[in-house]
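Here is the promised in-class demo. Please do not try to memorize the tokens; focus on the logic of going from shape to residues.
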């Protein structure tokens, strides 16, 4: 998350919005806000919109609401790639070119992000590593072995920088 926000800031973005799939604060929202603060960016609460975590709701409708209320937003972080893809489509409806008029970053690293124009930049989770840890933890619990420690359960996400940001 920090890598994604730092990239946006390095490109001159200071008015960054966020699309969340839940009106209540989520872990990803907290990560985003912490990363923004660490990069010296203050995110106005009105620049965070929440709607259904889907292409039309969270991606399309939420971005429309965000841009209507805050047309000065120059970059966007979406809590998942599906919402980010909806935002790409909605940005075109607003006459914005991505990334020149609005930079967009998603979260999940879905291969689907390479099939849209422009290709979606995304914070990617190594789902194979997550799965391997889940299997290991389950096996330990079944066999009575000590569970993995929280520090052993960390899977680092990485920014896959593509055309949208």
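The designed amino acids, position by position:
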């Amino acid at each position: 998350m920090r890598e994604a926000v730092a990239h946006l800031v390095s490109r001159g973005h200071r008015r960054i919005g966020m699309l969340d799939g839940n009106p209540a604060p989520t872990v990803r929202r907290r990560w985003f806000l912490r990363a923004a603060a660490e990069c010296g960016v203050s995110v106005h609460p009105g620049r965070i919109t929440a709607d259904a975590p889907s292409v039309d709701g969270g991606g399309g409708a939420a971005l429309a609401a965000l841009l209507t209320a805050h047309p000065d937003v120059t970059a966007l972080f979406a809590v998942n790639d599906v919402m980010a893809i909806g935002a790409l489509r909605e940005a075109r409806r607003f006459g914005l070119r991505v990334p020149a008029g609005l930079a967009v970053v998603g979260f999940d690293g879905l291969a689907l992000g390479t099939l849209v124009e422009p290709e979606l930049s995304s914070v990617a989770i190594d789902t194979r590593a997550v799965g391997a840890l889940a299997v290991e933890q389950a096996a330990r619990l079944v066999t009575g072995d000590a569970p993995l420690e929280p520090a052993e359960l960390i899977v680092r996400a990485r920014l896959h920088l593509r055309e949208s940001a």
